[in-house]
Amino acid sequence: MRWPTGVAGLCFGADYHPEHWPRHIWIQDMDLMRQAGVNLVTVGSTAWSRLEPAEGEYEFDWLDDTLDLLADNDIRAILAIPTSSPPPWFGLRHPDALTVDDRGNRLGHGSRDTYCVCAPAYRSACLRLTRELATRYRHHPALSIWQVHTTYRTVCHCDHSSRSFQLWLRERHGDLATLNEAWSTAVWGQRYSDWAQITAPRATTDAPNPAQALDFRRFNSDEMLTHFGEQQTVLRQYTPHIPVTTTFEIGDDVPIDHWRWSKEVDIVSMASYPDRVDRGAEEQTAFIADLARSLAGGRPWLLKEQATGLIHTPDGPHTFEPGRLERHAMTQIARGARGVMFEQWRAPTGGATAWRSAMLPHAGPNTRLFREIRRLGDMLPGLAELDGAAVRAKVAIMWDEPSWWALTGPSAPTPHVDYLGVVRQAHRVLWRHDVLTDFTAGETDLSGYRLAIIPHLYLATETIADNLAGWVAQGGTAVITYLSGTTDHTGRIHAGGLSGVFASLIGVRGEEAYPMLPDQSVRLSNGATGRVWSEHLHLDGAETICGYRGGTLDRQPAITRHALGDGHVWYVSTQLDDTDFTDLLDAIGILPSEADPDVETVERETDDDTYRIVINHGDKPTAINATGTDLVSGKPAEGGYQFLL
Amino acid sequence: MRWPTGVAGLCFGADYHPEHWPRHIWIQDMDLMRQAGVNLVTVGSTAWSRLEPAEGEYEFDWLDDTLDLLADNDIRAILAIPTSSPPPWFGLRHPDALTVDDRGNRLGHGSRDTYCVCAPAYRSACLRLTRELATRYRHHPALSIWQVHTTYRTVCHCDHSSRSFQLWLRERHGDLATLNEAWSTAVWGQRYSDWAQITAPRATTDAPNPAQALDFRRFNSDEMLTHFGEQQTVLRQYTPHIPVTTTFEIGDDVPIDHWRWSKEVDIVSMASYPDRVDRGAEEQTAFIADLARSLAGGRPWLLKEQATGLIHTPDGPHTFEPGRLERHAMTQIARGARGVMFEQWRAPTGGATAWRSAMLPHAGPNTRLFREIRRLGDMLPGLAELDGAAVRAKVAIMWDEPSWWALTGPSAPTPHVDYLGVVRQAHRVLWRHDVLTDFTAGETDLSGYRLAIIPHLYLATETIADNLAGWVAQGGTAVITYLSGTTDHTGRIHAGGLSGVFASLIGVRGEEAYPMLPDQSVRLSNGATGRVWSEHLHLDGAETICGYRGGTLDRQPAITRHALGDGHVWYVSTQLDDTDFTDLLDAIGILPSEADPDVETVERETDDDTYRIVINHGDKPTAINATGTDLVSGKPAEGGYQFLL
Amino acid sequence: MRWPTGVAGLCFGADYHPEHWPRHIWIQDMDLMRQAGVNLVTVGSTAWSRLEPAEGEYEFDWLDDTLDLLADNDIRAILAIPTSSPPPWFGLRHPDALTVDDRGNRLGHGSRDTYCVCAPAYRSACLRLTRELATRYRHHPALSIWQVHTTYRTVCHCDHSSRSFQLWLRERHGDLATLNEAWSTAVWGQRYSDWAQITAPRATTDAPNPAQALDFRRFNSDEMLTHFGEQQTVLRQYTPHIPVTTTFEIGDDVPIDHWRWSKEVDIVSMASYPDRVDRGAEEQTAFIADLARSLAGGRPWLLKEQATGLIHTPDGPHTFEPGRLERHAMTQIARGARGVMFEQWRAPTGGATAWRSAMLPHAGPNTRLFREIRRLGDMLPGLAELDGAAVRAKVAIMWDEPSWWALTGPSAPTPHVDYLGVVRQAHRVLWRHDVLTDFTAGETDLSGYRLAIIPHLYLATETIADNLAGWVAQGGTAVITYLSGTTDHTGRIHAGGLSGVFASLIGVRGEEAYPMLPDQSVRLSNGATGRVWSEHLHLDGAETICGYRGGTLDRQPAITRHALGDGHVWYVSTQLDDTDFTDLLDAIGILPSEADPDVETVERETDDDTYRIVINHGDKPTAINATGTDLVSGKPAEGGYQFLL
After folding, report:
1. Would you call B239 helix, strand, or coil by DSSP?
2. Interface size between A and B, measured as CB pairs under 8 A
3. Residue A644: what pLDDT?
4. Where do the Beta-galactosidase C-terminal domain residues begin and end (chains A, B, C) (predicted)?
5. CA dist., res. B5 & res. B141, Å (int)
6. Chain C residues with CB inside 8 Å of B210's CB?
7. Which residues span the domain enclosing B417?
8. Same domain, B606 and B534
9. How many CB atoms lie within 10 A of CB A620?
10. Which positions in chain C touch B517 (Cβ < 8 Å)?
11. How many interchain CB pairs under 8 A, B with C?
12. pLDDT per residue over C315-328, tens digit each?
């Protein structure tokens, strides 16, 4: 295993910004880091303007100094290529490389991510800087991992972007006739007769072309991956032994197809920022952790960035309750993280991140927060042996970002599909019952799984349908929700309507959709409530599990089950709430008979040992029956073991 | 009668897009159209990029083929001049002809309606295409009607637009002194000293000039009418016998003064897209139908575009319940439509309209929807004789789009006037009682009507006041709501305040307005509730019907009645809800003693016959007393006739 | 005293726009003004396009005429330099001087305030016009006051603005290293290496730099003050004896630091536009009046602009109830205004202000409104002697616009601090108890005050802390709310965290913040409810007054009191509602034992006399015990005096 170079045990640290502070503070930092057990920090992630204060002029002394200090203190560095924060001089000198919004307005500098990833000036400036850093630090003993960029996110609508999009489209579609067909440009008279006519989507007078929007998301994912790859190539050339990564983040505004990217990065690094203050934060933490492990192919991954003390909700910040920091870290380690790292080491006194949380808060080390950090740092070495134990899930949830994009893009079947919400719901219901899940892609071999949940796999092919059918026939159980199988990879609706290429798999033909408005719902015969969507189904091999009651679809099937070989395919044609979805999974028989809703349990195993990680999210002490060794205390544990995390 | 050329009986069809499909589908289409009874389709409406794939290069073969196929199958065509969807090459070649928004951003191609109607390049490209189509198809046997554009709607704020606006203003106002006076440019120092200083309204630093906004709406209506007229002139030159139309649509964002336009089109074609899922959809359908008939001067009109299966609400789509499609068609035919046509024939598999409804849904002909289409197609021939029977209303509602624009434009007296809502309310209350209404303009001769409702006729002249007074004096009853008569045609407030030129007509002088906030209301002495507006009235000939109770206006008149010759003028100084407005009309004596709220009835007559169209919108069968012939079944009907539509 | 030149007693009038009307109306105006007792009007405030219809061509005849008429009628004029409304020709000729928004879109003309205050063409055009007006009218007998501009408000983001900002920054920060430090540009790699890299803040890709946003607000305040000063210099040169003013307005979008400005204007002129329909309008009126008096250093000030009849709420307009106009005027005069003036004299018939209120409404002089105006005009001469009586407050509220800007700018500690709301709350609670308040700045000598409330003094220095500590030690009581003392003047967080430089003053150290979301609250041990913010406090000299109950901070201090010399410092670490804040002030002992919530009372005194102004905001008559002279009626008043305003 190539990673993490030089760090024994689990990684623990944060983004470290010596450039924010005078050097005497660095000395304090080293001391406090040692106290806290920090063994890995990310350096330089937004320091371009400090490293290259004017075009082609470099100042590396401070970074030399920092890395030396780290090495002296036995702390390793993720050395960041700070391509996400071009300096102010860059935008002034290359205004054509600044981001342009979808109305054609060139955005100003004055934040981070102020670039067009397609701009030639940006691309060459990145490569130059990467080469400088690689040359200078290739042999530095602190160097552990290269990180390119921070999170890739900025989408630009300028002419550079249009030109790169055209090239990408040529590659993808081959010729214009194919593109015109794939994009249905005959609709509303958008037939292209020259590649030059195609632009990055811009604000326009009426509804935009949904296929153009979808391909533009894909293009951005690929173009950013190319940018990543360019730096990776340089870095590998100089330091073939050092892994190269970037930070993944899951979100509406992130145009990244993580399945494609996870094949290219040497380490899956994940950012985790839950946005709910209630138990939802713990669910989201587990969700991100399971997704990261799945993207890493079940191998260890790095929790690269998270808050130490705040949940950033859409309505404002919320401060972690005591212990929450540790519990999140435990969740991540239980689910395969080879370390937990945080957004920043020391809270800055100004700038956009001054009020975001850090390992070391404004009030300094004599604080509840820093005490928790130290306690966590003390605990981690004892948990290192977990790293060798496999995390094995019996349930798979299908994850497909292009389907997400298509279903929430322009001219979707209904504006009310919440793709991420539905995937999270499936994960959440299982999480509450301590059923571990992996995430899978359409063509993943499912043979290790008992159950596969396929939420809204809108973009689908016969190949995927066959993959699922083959696995079901051998005894698998699939739960497929509405708007799956409906379109091809460009979003073109398959012949025959709603069930598309999944018709024979689910044994049902969906004739007509009855989408629901936000204030509408429908009753089901089993007492459940349906929302968002309903559809007029014709059984074609499947049997009705429950039907609609009332409304136009009264007495028609709502949830069906199709026996296929040794397995079954369930089809859910409406949106269930958590309780009803739980009942459904219970009926399938995947949920354990009892689970303490306050306690999260993950089991892992090696050939010899079984590990049970138990995390108490409730506010009361609780007891478990276990015999073995308590890895936290290092002491033997016996039946009726009392613990409180 | 010139229209519709070559179609016997009522028209039935949709927009047909052969360019979306390969030719073998067309053959299926012809067969299915015949099965459904389709006799008229609109062809080419968005096919510019297919007809002229590069500037000056034409591809007509596919359209030749389509029209031949249609003619062979005895289906006639509305041949569309697709000026609303310029091809991608057009914007690339003539970027100055793309739409500019009100902040000066040039919008991209990537949708339909991507043009500036004032751009010379656009205007000449349109004329060139029109000539090509006219030349080629002038003698084609399928050609029944020319349609120019789809719905005119796109407003542009570019320099072309400013220049055309200046020319229009010169024509309207003559000289700058007059314009400065009309626009009150002395306010906030906006006095113009050169025509070149006047621009299309652009986003600015504070409140814009309301008169400029109003004139810009009018200008757009006229400029678009000029564009329409240019194509019409060409088409008439080649095919003097073929009527020319365009599609009307009623909406906030449509800058069209339909009274002016209805004089120019050869056929009034209307789009009908209700946006409420409850009975409001039926009310809106009848409203649009009555308005279309009124715009057509009582003559037949064409329901040109509507959904077959979806109500597009602001919150998302809702699917028609079974039978709703037919009921809407019946409402339209009952109210004078010479045919019902739909948005699209066959649901496309991609593009912006993929999830909009069609006569032939994705799931094909073996569907509830297509069966309803066929049933409707079967029913229509029997109803053709209705077309000769007059639709006679005894109530008129005044309709004035410029008043709408002024009242909902910048710096209006209150932001809470809902002009369209109030007009619809008047129509709705009467519709619920099966009282048929026409819509009229300010100077329409009202002698055929018993009652005229004048909602918010904000822009008014002495001439209109005299017209109303003369008709009232002869026995008419007028109901006038607040903010009527207040300003002249440019929005300048008439001397004397709120009652303006209607003071002597309504016999009341409004001293001061007391607008209400959304959460405020006022009680009236008759138990009614007033909202949005109230005013301090002084009787000047009128008597008080009911007064305000509570608040500043306690005991002051709220609703008044002015006896004028043999008639009366009622003035309503506040916003009533449906129930209270119903009571008011009831007090006036215009409502029949009973009406089944579920059943819509329209009576029409020829010299010899009386036709009664009865539509049951309820969910239970109902019976009517009637003797005659059931036009749907063709069988004799007798008393206590049981029917369920 | 230099002001107001030539007006005996209190000023009464409005903005007068003869340019809106033909001359024969002016003659009526003079007559009606005399009837109403008008003695001062503002002329020319938006008349640039009338005064200079083309560049360098002037038309002064109408203004000569107007001023002569005014002088003949013994009415004096505030002569306005109309720099806030450049004419249409100006924008056409100098497009670079039009406002640019933060996305780089140049806004159009078509309103007022369409300029960039930094544009050289604008600056020279202003000076030219000022010189013309000063030259022509320097000796006119009507001339009483010069007013420059109306309210300064327009912020521009163009290149001129960027260049002026750079110059201002050089002056403020001296060198780039200092600026980089002050702005924390190390965060997110925004280190500037050349002044030219710094721009006016523009829309950017992620969170902007908060220090840049704050300095840009300050820059705008200073740049506008420079613009004001340029005109003032010219005017003083020609008419050293005539005071020069501009109009202050308090609002979110006004980038003016009024403490700085109040030193430069010769007269503090204030606009007062309450936006609530309930008693809030009266509270806001008193708030603005007290603030104006404070800005004027306790000297007389001018209520320069207010509505006569409308409250402009965010949801639309509300009409004044009878008497409200007079009550607001009384509130202003009671609190030191040397006159009350209104937005406009005569309601225009068109333009953006047609539906705003005026002294003379559309319905003319025979109206309730004009009768109230006349009654007010009759009343004022009797109140003139009040002007010599001092207004003495025993409570000070600290007012700091930069703290407001920083707390509501980007990346603030929480988005939910409502700075203005909290200042208003403090004022409101005291106002309800007839406790008069002044507003003070951080370094104001507080020796005359018993109590100082310091709401959210986020930007603070040791000097301010020392000033407060010194005053408290001598017996003062300070109430300091959370997020005070936290940062330096650039918004950089002081070492040690939340309590910053106030730590020793408040005797408390704030370790960690627990901001609350809008739907969250926390109970306090005294039964109060906390919102928005809470924090983990460590006592360091202070004692706990009440604590948090429940939640993470259960049993921790919430409100503390620190004995310091002869005085006390109270610290309130959460947001209280009105009732709980009232209880707090009551506990401090500043509230009188009883106060009629409907009656507002202000006492003023000269060496010889005591004046009591009593305003009844309730809807029932009320009686007061007073012996003396009723200034309104001029008659003796005795005990149990019955009055109803």
Report:
1. coil
2. 192
3. 42
4. 598-641
5. 10
6. 350-352, 354
7. 395-588
8. no
9. 7
10. 277, 313, 315-316, 318
11. 191
12. 999 999 999 999 99
Amino acid B342: pLDDT: 98
Q: What span, in angstroms and rounded, lies between the C-alpha atoms of A12 and A7?
A: 10
Domain's final residue, options A215, A239, A258: A258
Contacts with C351 from chain B: Cβ below 8 Å: 183-188, 190, 209-211, 411
Helices H / strands E in chain A, number of each: 17, 28
CA–CA separation, A518 and A349 (whole Å): 44
A chain contacts of residue B322, beta-carbon cutoff 8 Å: 552
Give me the residue from B17, B49, B107 closest to A190, CB to CB: B49
Residues C558, C432, single domain; the answer is yes
Domain count, chain B: 2
Question: From CA B430, how far away is CA B602, in angstroms rounded?
Answer: 12
Per the domain annotation, does A150 fall within a domain?
yes
CB contact under 8 A, C205 and A351: no
Peptide bond into A4 cis (omega under 30): yes
Closest by Cβ to C89, choosing from B194, B212, B517: B194
| pLDDT tens column, C265-296 | 999 999 999 999 999 999 999 999 999 999 99
Q: Is A260 left (phi over 0), alpha (psi -120 to 50) or beta?
A: alpha
Pairing of strands B76-81, A641-643: unpaired
> Is there a contact between B264 and B228 (Cβ–Cβ < 8 Å)?
yes
Same domain, B578 and B637: no
Q: Which residue of C has its CA nearest to A99?
A: C205
Q: Where are the beta strands (DSSP E) in A522-576?
A: 522-524, 529-530, 535-539, 543-549, 557-564, 567-572
Judge if C479 and C524 occupy the same domain: yes
How crowded is the C-beta side of C560, counted as CA atoms within 13 Å? 30
User: Which ranges of B255-298 would DSSP assign to H, the alpha helix?
Assistant: 258-262, 280-295
Chain A 104-143, CB below 8 Å of chain B: which residues? 104-105
Q: Over 70: is that where the pLDDT of A222 sits?
A: yes
CA distance A457 to A488: 10
Direct distance between the N- and C-terminal alpha carbons of chain A, in angstroms, rounded to an integer? 32
Q: Is residue C342 part of a domain?
A: no
Q: Is C486 helix (H, G, I), strand (E, B) or coil?
A: coil
B399 & B546 share domain: yes
B433, B577: one domain: yes
| Interface subset of A 78-97, CB within 8 angstroms of C | 82, 85-89, 91-92
pLDDT tens digit sequence for B40-61? 999 999 999 999 999 999 999 9
DSSP strand E in C24-90: where? 40-43, 76-81
Which pLDDT does position B303 carry in this prediction?
98
Predicted-complex ipTM score:
0.96
Q: Distance between alpha carbon C117 and the CA centroid of its chain, in Å?
A: 21
Q: Helix, strand or coil for residue C91?
A: helix
Q: Which of A588, A609, A629 is the last residue of a domain?
A: A588
For residue A34, give the CATH number of its domain. 3.20.20.80
Given A110, A347, A362, which is nearest C208 (Cβ)?
A: A110
- Return the structure tokens found at A389: 């134990």
User: Residue A189 carries which DSSP code?
Assistant: G
CATH of the domain at C491: 3.40.50.880
- Distance (Å) of CA B380 to CA B32, B143, B334, B374: 17, 22, 12, 10
CA distance A282 to A261: 26
Same domain, B428 and B512: yes
DSSP H or E stretch at residue B324: helix B324-334
- Tell me if C423 is assigned to some domain: yes
Q: Does residue A9 form part of some domain?
A: no
- What are the residues whose beta carbons fall under 8 Å from the beta carbon of A608, sequence distance 6 or more? none
Q: Is A118 annotated as a binding residue?
A: no
Nearest Cα residue to C106 out of A105, A201, A111, B95: A105
pTM for this entry? 0.96
